């Protein structure tokens, strides 16, 4: 066996090596030396006891001796650990200061760590609370019934931040009173429109899943812009009359669905051309439900804070604050006028200072409709143009109960559209087509009180 304080192979010459080495400070060179000693003696590095002696160091066989210099006392294994008696008080103060500094550093680092844990837990709880508040659990239940779309229905915030480059301003597509829309590219390379809302309206959250700053809403990205953009471009020609008529039918179907076929009737409350999106095939996508409200089945309307866009806003709703489905009907009537005239309802003023709706109805009643119609409509349209004009006049009547329902509007528009398609077919003779136009032309005109109601 090797002697005490030694380790190695006692059957080899110089096979037993000392375990203890003491030096005053250990340099990089000494560390390398100890490494080779341990390797040559086949002693694990962690078996060597390498001591730093800051006093008088003496290496003995299998051990070492480290003492403070004469006239000093303290810890010879610590730098500046050996001090004279008169320095003890100062050393104690320095030691306490150093210890307090280290303790303070530990407390600061520990506090930061704990705070971050608390913040993460709080953020997780808040997300769960927001998820419940905005009917996320209801959405999850619905997703269980449609496993094919479940993975696309709920996206984590981190993925949306990445998709928009952390909501970079360069990614903004537009915005309104309820939020800003960003173009996003998901990890699946699908292009989407992500709406980040501005405000939380707790009252409306309780009544309907409205757009708030809590959820970020991810929409299909519609690349062809809005109906407003197509109608009000600077070019002399816009959408063909055939496309405008079809678009009117599709908008009426969407609103009719909200009013009549949805499980709970919904009033859009902000129907306007900027909220009518068009895809690559010019198919209508009704958007922006930030102001929408549901109507309990046992009610015909509700009193609420007036919201909407000037020029499209129902004047009766504006004056009374009583919201009904007929408010959407009025706004849709304005869109029909916009399709016929290519005039902007928000900014249009007649030479007499009248609004677009008032001026349009006045000219229609006087039999001077051609003075305000878009020249492209005059060129491409037939007798159905008058039919659409008369329907628009019905929709914008001042008294809401005098307006048709959206379901009635849908039926009338489909009938007009079908007649137009039939008239355009090869089976339609010139005589029957002329008869159709002349019959509708005879219907132009109206009572003066209908015009006065739009003053």
Which properties best describe this structure?
455 residues, alpha+beta, Phosphorylase Kinase, domain 1, Transferase(Phosphotransferase), domain 1, 4-stranded antiparallel sheet, two-stranded antiparallel ribbon, rod-shaped
Question: What would you note in describing this structure?
Answer:
There is one protein chain. By secondary structure, the chain is of the alpha+beta class. The chain folds into 3 domains: 6-83, no CATH class; 157-220, 2-Layer Sandwich (Phosphorylase Kinase, domain 1); 227-452, Orthogonal Bundle (Transferase(Phosphotransferase), domain 1). The protein contains 16 helices and 18 strands. The chain has helices at 28-40, 88-133, 136-144, 150-153, 157-163, 202-207, 227-231, 241-261, 315-320, 325-341, 356-366, 375-380, 384-395, 406-424, 430-441, 448-452, and strands at 6-8, 16-18, 20-23, 49-52, 56-60, 63-67, 73-74, 82-83, 172-175, 179-185, 191-197, 217-220, 266-267, 276-278, 284-286, 293-294, 301-303, 322-324. The strands form 8 sheets. The protein has a 4-stranded antiparallel β-sheet, covered by helices on one side. A two-stranded antiparallel sheet has the order 1-2. Strands 3-4 form a two-stranded parallel sheet. Strand 7 (73-74) and strand 8 form a beta hairpin. Helix 8 (241-261) runs antiparallel to helix 10 and helix 8 packs antiparallel against helix 14 (406-424). The protein is rod-shaped, with a radius of gyration of 41 Å. The N and C termini lie far apart (117 Å). The chain crosses the membrane at residues 32-51, 93-118. Residues 422-455 are annotated as: Disordered. One of its GO terms (cellular component) is plasma membrane. It holds the Pfam family Pkinase. Keywords: ATP-binding, Kinase, Membrane, Nucleotide-binding, Serine/threonine-protein kinase, Transferase, Transmembrane, Transmembrane helix.
């Amino acid at each position: 066996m090797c002697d005490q304080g030694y380790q190695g192979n006692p059957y080899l010459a110089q096979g037993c090596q000392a375990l203890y080495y003491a030096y005053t400070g250990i340099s990089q060179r000494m560390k390398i030396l100890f490494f080779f000693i341990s390797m040559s003696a086949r002693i694990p590095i962690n078996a060597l006891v390498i001591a730093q002696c800051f006093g008088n160091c003496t290496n003995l066989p299998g051990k070492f001796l480290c003492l403070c210099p004469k006239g000093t006392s303290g810890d010879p294994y610590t730098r500046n650990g050996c001090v004279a008696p008169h320095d003890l008080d100062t050393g104690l103060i320095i030691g306490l200061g150093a210890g307090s500094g280290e303790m303070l550093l530990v407390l600061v680092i520990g506090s930061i760590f704990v705070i971050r844990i608390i913040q993460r837990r709080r953020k997780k709880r808040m997300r769960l609370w927001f998820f419940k508040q905005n009917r996320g659990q209801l959405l999850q239940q619905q997703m269980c019934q449609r496993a094919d779309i479940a993975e696309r229905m709920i996206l984590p915030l981190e993925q949306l931040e990445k998709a928009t480059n952390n909501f970079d301003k360069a990614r903004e597509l537009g915005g309104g009173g309820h939020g800003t829309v960003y173009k996003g590219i998901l990890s699946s390379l699908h292009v989407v429109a992500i709406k980040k809302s501005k405000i939380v309206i707790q009252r409306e959250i309780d009544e309907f899943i409205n757009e708030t700053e809590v959820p970020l809403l991810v929409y299909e990205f519609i690349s062809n812009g809005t109906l407003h953009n197509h109608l009000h471009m600077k070019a002399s020609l816009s959408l063909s009359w055939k496309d405008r008529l079809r678009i009117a039918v599709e908008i009426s179907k969407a609103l009719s669905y909200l009013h009549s076929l949805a499980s709970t009737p919904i009033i859009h409350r902000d129907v306007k051309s900027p909220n009518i999106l068009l895809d690559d095939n010019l198919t209508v996508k009704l958007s922006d439900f930030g102001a929408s409200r549901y109507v309990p089945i046992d009610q015909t309307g509700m009193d609420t804070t007036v919201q909407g866009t000037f020029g499209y806003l129902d004047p009766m709703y504006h004056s009374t604050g009583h919201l009904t489905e007929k408010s959407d009907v009025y706004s849709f009537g304005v869109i029909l006028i916009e399709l016929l005239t290519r005039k902007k309802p928000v900014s249009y003023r007649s030479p007499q200072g009248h609004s677009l709706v008032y001026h349009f109805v006045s000219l229609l009643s006087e039999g001077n409709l051609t003075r305000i119609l878009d020249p492209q409509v005059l060129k491409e349209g037939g007798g159905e143009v008058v039919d659409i004009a008369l329907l628009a006049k019905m929709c914008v009547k001042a008294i809401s109960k005098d307006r048709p329902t959206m379901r009635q509007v849908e039926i009338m528009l489909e009938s007009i559209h079908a007649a137009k398609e039939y008239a355009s077919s090869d089976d339609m003779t010139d005589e029957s087509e002329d008869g159709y136009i002349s019959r509708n032309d005879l219907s132009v005109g109206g009572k003066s009180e209908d015009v006065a109601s739009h003053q």
